[in-house]
């Protein structure tokens, strides 16, 4: 069979189908194509201009509505007072350092503990039944227990037992409570990931002579963990916000630092400052999650084409 | 090119109307001014039993829950026992409301003096009168001169302190939004960050459990805690008044409340005729033998 090369270059059965890839020597786009592209560029410019104008108008209208709303001066004084923002910001930042440390340490502990529980829950063999049952009971209990109750029991209640060698530091106790609750959530995420790996993968690994443990370690877990990155980061963002709850033990984190100024000044700007600081921490984490998800989707798509 | 299907205009109109309605609905209420007091029958005077209360014929009095001793006995504000309960009923009687016309309401300490419309006629909850709080609420004249005291476990690190300087290196605790916390940050200026609790109960349990070396509460509360709740704690000492003026507890009223002057008159009358002293003798311990921290 002879294939006929068309003038514009595309048409080969296994060509890449991108016309611009081949318009070398002597190709002049037709007048119709030039006209079409010019038209498209004009439409795109027009769309951008309309979009910009409409955004501007919306912005101005919103601004005018907000500024001329009857409650605006009082709202501004109550929530957006520059004076109290300046007073609160350094103290909130100082408190935030506690939240960040809690996030890093609890985050690491949660990942390790969650993984151990998930693995315990997916172990096979009758001998492991007690372990599986315990892991299931743990996740059921701590996922259902409200975090605030968990914190109050551990931070306020445990020191009353006067156990030897057990800390009374509210931050350590609060971190323990956070780890208990969040490792239950994360264990469920890991378990879902492990169970989402197709059984044929495990079967293939076993048929290659790997032991059950090796199959889990080298074949199942790597695939599971990669799939679980977005929900895991989601739980970390959630953990980051909940570190603010350790303040019930008397520790001054970003939330309580704001609370102290509000308690004295009766102005609510410090809460806004603390809230924004948390949001500012969360947004990069969220964007990072999005980026990781997108990258993994691309990779999976490539894998599917093989 | 086909035009994209348009959003029906009525929907836009409806949404805009809804937003406008919301904006108007959210418009703040003007603050009531004392001068706007009802000019009707009562005419701003404090005619007994005829004040412009929230519920006509009733006097709504608020305090926190739980209500602590020695201010209220057995967590029952309506019992008439305990210093503040007795004062509340004495004020009510003075205003022309007998016991059955007094309705109690539960309002958290922090919320009692926060800006915004109030659901009570007055609140009695050991709220110290301060200029900052006066921007948000009205106060009656003071019904009790209060001192702040330091509590520590017997034999603990803070137990032997006789000066403010000796407290500086210790871990102190107090409830958020209280003058007790202000005394820690402004007078003691501790080297270690103080522990700040949402409730006095939590500060007490932290003291009991050794999570803090000492806590700061007002003196009558300190007497009660050492006598009944944390019996292995002792009062280390009391602070001197800051800036000479005694710290006073006042009744909290809504900003610009029509009742403020009447309630103030009632409190003043009760002080002058010795009723307040009588109630204090009955319910509060004598502060005389508590050493002052220099």
UniProtKB/TrEMBL annotation, chain A:
Residues 1-38 are annotated as: Disordered. It is a multi-pass membrane protein. The keyword Membrane applies. Residues 96-289 form the ABC transmembrane type-1 domain. Keywords: Amino-acid transport, Cell membrane, Membrane, Transmembrane, Transmembrane helix, Transport. Residues 21-37 have a biased composition (Basic and acidic residues). Pfam families: BPD_transp_1 (PF00528). This is ABC transporter permease. It comes from Streptomyces griseoviridis.
TrEMBL record, chain B:
It comes from the Bacteria. The keyword Transmembrane helix does not apply. Keywords: Signal. SUPFAM superfamilies: Periplasmic binding protein-like II. Residues 58-287 form the Solute-binding protein family 3/N-terminal domain. Transmembrane segments: none annotated. Residues 1-23 form the signal peptide. GO terms for cellular component: membrane. This is Amino acid ABC transporter substrate-binding protein. It comes from Streptomyces griseoviridis.
